[in-house]
Amino acid sequence: MKSGGVFPEQGIPWRTLEQELSEYQSGEMPYERGVFERYWPAYPDEAYLASRSAQSMFAHTNLFSMNALPSLKRVERELREMVGEILHVPEDGAVTLTMGGTESNFLAVKGARARGRAMGITRPNIVIPMTGHPSFDKAGDELGVDVRRIEVDAEFRAVPSRMRESVDENTILVAGSAPSYPQGVIDPIEELSRMAADSEVWMHVDACVGGFLLGALREVDPATPRFSLDIPGVWSVSADLHKFGLCLNGISTFSVRHRDLQSLHTYTLPEPGWPYRGYQRIGFAGSRPGSTIAAAWTTLRTLGREGYVRAAASIHRSARRLAEGIERIDGLRVDLPPEAGILVVFPEPEVDLESVSSAMLERAWDVSTALAPPSLHILLSPHMEHIVDPFLHDLREAVAQVRGEGPRATTAFTYGD
């Protein structure tokens, strides 16, 4: 075993390592300045502190051995039950906990492919809007499924009639977003579900961003559309607990209308398939940290319905204030209503947004940009209303600076950088 580089020859005391980690973090952006992108979402203090304590209580546990840990088994079951209540999962339905939204969407494609195979489909395809998440392409590449991306309308929403034209006898799944990540708008899920039902195709909703916001937001703004399994034609929903579920990172959900659909993303290797014992896992992962499950359980129990409604109301207020303030900045406009925690800002032709993003970074604000069409992409969090005014002040200055100086050299980045 080689040592002497980063890997030390002898162990280092925690206090020394703690100081080293603090030094690593010292040059990073202050938390409140980064909540629109790199630190999103901002967690309510009471839920954050409680979930960290729960996480440490279960830091040694592995969900693979859940039957040997009755406490963890109960926590996991109750977490799935809470998710089921929030997302309107029927009694005959099922919730699978995953590590992230990509895995959740992957399971939807995997389940639909298995169903398609049973129907004799050998060259499967899925039909999604142009704004659908890249995880569908990733799943398609890995599973041998063709992904058909269909142009959206002027508001960047899926157009059911256009998508219907691409559905054929080999289509195994149709998907919509609630909301789409690039522009933050909600696809017409009810119309898409009727179209999918007419074609007898699996209808999946990617609500990884909005799944744990939209239900609470309906109590604040009744115009918020339905998106989940309370719509009869929806077969499955993916929703990230680590986004607007406000849970610590590393946990998403994949919910299906009928329990037998869960068997389509369950892997079984019966005895004597290998020398140990029979193997069965629901979902993709084998080992999973019990600490993440305990932290999420604690967040949902700490906040409760009232806590999520308060968070949704705060996001709603911040979105309106930001949109109104940005509309008053010469050179910027807000063309789309901020429906689900994402605010998208479009420029006038003379304003280079990459330069604006760079100028905001100089002012210690982290704001990302989308490519097509060019736009600022602002992710909202609850209880951050006190930073709206300073953010608008600096954004106004940044736009004026860029308009005066012209475009600057910027570094290209990819989604997730």
Automatic annotation (TrEMBL):
User: Which residues get modified to N6-(pyridoxal phosphate)lysine?
Assistant: 243
Arranged from A to Z, the UniProt key words for this protein are: Aminotransferase, Lyase, Pyridoxal phosphate, Transferase
What superkingdom heads the lineage? Bacteria
> GO molecular-function annotation terms?
aromatic-L-amino-acid decarboxylase activity; pyridoxal phosphate binding; transaminase activity
Q: Which cofactor does it need?
A: pyridoxal 5'-phosphate
Q: Which GO terms describe its biological process?
A: carboxylic acid metabolic process
Q: Which InterPro entries match?
A: GrpII_AminoAcid_Decarb, PyrdxlP-dep_de-COase, PyrdxlP-dep_Trfase, PyrdxlP-dep_Trfase_major, PyrdxlP-dep_Trfase_small
**Name of one Pfam family that matches:** Pyridoxal_deC
* PANTHER family per record: PTHR42735, SPHINGOSINE-1-PHOSPHATE LYASE 1
Family statement: Belongs to the group II decarboxylase family. Sphingosine-1-phosphate lyase subfamily.
Q: What is this protein called?
A: Aspartate aminotransferase family protein
What species was this sequence derived from?
Sinosporangium siamense
